[in-house]
Design brief:
Elements: E1 3-8, E2 12-13, E3 17-18, E4 24-34, E5 43-50, E6 57-62, E7 70-76, E8 98-105, E9 112-121
Antiparallel strand pairs: 1-9, 2-8, 3-8, 4-7, 4-9, 5-6, 5-8
Length: 122
């Protein structure tokens, strides 16, 4: 469990995940509630690598914006490509030692209920 199911109204960072042996992972965003007062609001899942020296985070892979209930997945694995990735040649980079999942809310104050799960892949 990366993030337990809860109602959230602002961008939320998951805890750091230490990767011991996995080359990649599948991440699941399960949205079970959407604020009806904002039909165009969205949440977006981002996998971020942590720089071991500065402690700063950089996006490895960005999922699509989600506006409705349902489950979406984000794959981070060598050979998986995404035009929105911030790192050049991302498809040659395995999942780093320390990373986190960030859920970005398009409209702070508007409620989304969701959970995030992970399956690391060797």
């Amino acid at each position: 469990t990366v993030m337990a199911s809860a109602s959230r109204t602002v961008t939320t960072n998951g805890d750091d995940i230490v990767n011991y042996n996995a080359r990649g992972g599948l991440f699941y965003l399960d949205v079970t509630g959407v604020d009806a007062s904002c039909p165009t609001c969205s949440v977006q899942m981002i996998c971020q690598a942590k720089d071991p020296v500065s402690g700063n985070y950089v996006a490895l892979e960005t999922g699509t914006a989600v506006t409705a209930t349902g489950t979406t997945t984000l794959a981070v694995y060598p050979g998986v490509t995404d035009a929105s990735a911030e790192i050049a040649n991302q498809n040659d980079i395995p999942l780093p030692r320390t990373f986190r999942i960030r859920i970005v809310h398009s409209s702070p104050g508007k409620s989304f209920t969701y959970s995030v799960g992970a399956s690391l892949v060797i």
